[in-house]
Amino acid sequence: MASGRFYLSCMLLGSLGSLCILFTTYWMQYWRGGFAWDGSVHMFNWHPVLMVSGMVVLYGAASLVYRLPWSWVGPKLPWKVLHAALHLLAFTLTVLGLVAVFRFHNHSKITHLYSLHSWLGITTVILFAFQWSMGFAIFLLPWASQWLRSLLKPVHVFFGACILALSITSVISGINEKLFFVLKNATKPYSSLPSEAVFANSTGLLVVAFGLLVLYVLLASPWKRPDPGALTDRQPLLQDRE
């Protein structure tokens, strides 16, 4: 079963995830002028907040549902539904974040998808959509055989971790790109490390710390869900024993 280190990690994850969202929101509010939904640059400010909230923090939380000890016993379906619902919420926030940046680009006559950051980001979102659809079809609906689920489960876990890693990379490159765009005049160039750069870089470090801790909890073998045979009071559901 989970140890005190597991619960300490969960508390640390909650704190880091909250700080990631709060720091990103504060950056956009204090230095970038706040938020709107009118196609202006203030609409763009929703993009980093929604992407960090959805693709990093909520995605990370959803990935760890099966690490909770309460999910190790009894019917697995409620935890499957929670896992899928949290990921769907994360995807919804992600789509809203994309809408914000695309509308801003249209309003400002800026070309779409020309930077490495945008390529990484859109690739991550496409993989996320495919991952969620396949997970829903294979692991939540009852039609798939146990053999097929057992075959695809390691692939599902692997791509889940890859998508989180890509999300972190996209966020870091996005922070760097934004700073290069807004801190390029003579009074406060990025190279002089003004207070906004320090704060935004610190936000990026928080995102990296959160993501690495999620991957550690996700991949640490002592905290993985035990084999079904190890839990005598577990009730198989939908012929599911993975």
TrEMBL record:
<keyword id="KW-0249">Electron transport</keyword>
<feature type="transmembrane region" description="Helical">
    <location>
        <begin position="81"/>
        <end position="104"/>
    </location>
</feature>
<keyword id="KW-0813">Transport</keyword>
<dbReference type="InterPro" id="IPR006593">
    <property type="entry name" value="Cyt_b561/ferric_Rdtase_TM"/>
</dbReference>
<dbReference type="GO" id="GO:0005730">
    <property type="term" value="C:nucleolus"/>
</dbReference>
<keyword id="KW-0967">Endosome</keyword>
<comment type="function">
    <text>Transmembrane reductase that uses ascorbate as an electron donor in the cytoplasm and transfers electrons across membranes to reduce iron cations Fe(3+) into Fe(2+) in the lumen of the late endosome and lysosome. Reduced iron can then be extruded from the late endosome and lysosome to the cytoplasm by divalent metal-specific transporters. It is therefore most probably involved in endosomal and lysosomal cellular iron homeostasis.</text>
</comment>
<protein>
    <recommendedName>
        <fullName>Lysosomal membrane ascorbate-dependent ferrireductase CYB561A3</fullName>
        <ecNumber>7.2.1.3</ecNumber>
    </recommendedName>
</protein>
<dbReference type="GO" id="GO:0046872">
    <property type="term" value="F:metal ion binding"/>
</dbReference>
<feature type="transmembrane region" description="Helical">
    <location>
        <begin position="116"/>
        <end position="143"/>
    </location>
</feature>
<feature type="transmembrane region" description="Helical">
    <location>
        <begin position="49"/>
        <end position="69"/>
    </location>
</feature>
<keyword id="KW-1278">Translocase</keyword>
<feature type="transmembrane region" description="Helical">
    <location>
        <begin position="6"/>
        <end position="28"/>
    </location>
</feature>
<dbReference type="GO" id="GO:0031902">
    <property type="term" value="C:late endosome membrane"/>
</dbReference>
<dbReference type="InterPro" id="IPR043205">
    <property type="entry name" value="CYB561/CYBRD1-like"/>
</dbReference>
<feature type="domain" description="Cytochrome b561">
    <location>
        <begin position="12"/>
        <end position="219"/>
    </location>
</feature>
<feature type="transmembrane region" description="Helical">
    <location>
        <begin position="197"/>
        <end position="219"/>
    </location>
</feature>
<keyword id="KW-0349">Heme</keyword>
<keyword id="KW-0325">Glycoprotein</keyword>
<keyword id="KW-0560">Oxidoreductase</keyword>
<keyword id="KW-0812">Transmembrane</keyword>
<keyword id="KW-0472">Membrane</keyword>
<dbReference type="GO" id="GO:0005765">
    <property type="term" value="C:lysosomal membrane"/>
</dbReference>
<dbReference type="Pfam" id="PF03188">
    <property type="entry name" value="Cytochrom_B561"/>
</dbReference>
<keyword id="KW-0479">Metal-binding</keyword>
<feature type="transmembrane region" description="Helical">
    <location>
        <begin position="155"/>
        <end position="176"/>
    </location>
</feature>
<dbReference type="GO" id="GO:0140571">
    <property type="term" value="F:transmembrane ascorbate ferrireductase activity"/>
</dbReference>
<keyword id="KW-0458">Lysosome</keyword>
<dbReference type="GO" id="GO:0006879">
    <property type="term" value="P:intracellular iron ion homeostasis"/>
</dbReference>
<keyword id="KW-0408">Iron</keyword>
<comment type="subunit">
    <text>Homodimer.</text>
</comment>
<keyword id="KW-1133">Transmembrane helix</keyword>
